[in-house]
Records
---
Amino acid sequence: MNLAHINGLVRSTLKENSPLLLSFAAGVGTLATSYLVGKASFQACDVIRAHEKHFPASNNHRERVMERTKLVWKLYIPPAISATSTIACIFGANRVGLKKTLAAQTAFAVSERVYSEYRDKVIEEYGERKDQSIRDQIAADKVKKDAPSQDVMITGPGNVLCCEMYTGRYFASDMETLRKSQNELNSRLLAHDYATFDDFYELIGLARTSSSGQMGWKSTKLMGLNFSTVLTEDGRPCLAFEYNYVEPL
């Protein structure tokens, strides 16, 4: 392993972990600033006390403050530098984190567009029946690969095994409840310009995820559910569904 390779590896590692490193530096900087301010304050008290033993302080408050400031301002240079560096680290971490988030959202949007264009092309070339057949096969493979446990979440009045393919979670519901939830979400979508997975999960009784508040649908295109009826490995019927599109909000 040559020096150039090591240098490139170090640079890529630092770049990849820069938000974490900057956040750590900001934490250290906060502690260092507090320490330096405390140290400078004690030193300032000693300097002012020693000076005023020989030169009594002015009775005028403004003059007294100016005299003391001239005596001790240099002591606060290190804390000021530390505070400035800490603030720079905080802004740097936020900026890098925002850039990574925007890049991820852009990549996701591009992937969704490519997938949508691919599906449109399949429908154009082979028809909707072939598209449905492909989606059914994908759903069947998904259910067989990630088989549901015996304990299935009960979220509503229905008792049909359902699989939300976006997160791979299983729960008991029915087609009517899911269609009703879809219509309710689209009503909210039109009223508020956008809707998130949090909104839909609330309607069907599923728990939120760490990213469900940042993903969803916009009023420019209504949300639709695509259903596939498949069998699990133990022979249970399962209603698997996916969304016609998803995008970052």
---
Amino acid sequence: MLPGDANNQGDVHGGTIMKLVDTAGAIAAVRHARTRVVTAVVDQMTFDAPVHVGDLVELSARLTWTGHTSMEVQVTVVAERVVTGERRVTSTAYVVYVALDETGRPKPVPPFEPRTPDERRRWRAAEARREARLRARQEHQAGR
């Protein structure tokens, strides 16, 4: 990360990390759906440790769940102090993307079939997050 990404104490702005997360997550979603996607929800994002100027940032994105036209992707951010080799997880995010057709309308996505115990665990957790999002949306609409 470079000085332009950070505040005057040398900590990288959270918004800079969020942009990187959204880019990595969208790439994973496009790879799965093989079509254009848009960000629908940043369900959860943690900032567990700071990223500093000079750190090398590595992002990994994995599909955790698919619906009819939407997909959830987990993105993990790891920062490395290049000089020492110290690596630490700095952020984790769950981002929902919607696949779009050529006219910009939602389009069905191929189903994701969790095969390993870890993938099945992540799928169940993603479904729980989805249910919580739907409940929150209903409560919000009822309160209007």
---
Amino acid sequence: MKEESGRNEEPFQLIFQKHAAIMLLIEPVTGKIIEANEAAQRFYGYTGSQLCAMSIQDINFLPPEE
């Protein structure tokens, strides 16, 4: 992992990937999914690479206002 401000991102990545809560990193302007943890992959039924090829609108069935 890359170093940023003297800190290693590896602990964050490990916590993010292995956490039981469904977590997605989403680009706020476009809604593109940047990263999905293992819980999100199980919940949505897609691999991480499939989810990263999607936008939140592809998996969110709520109206945009919500």
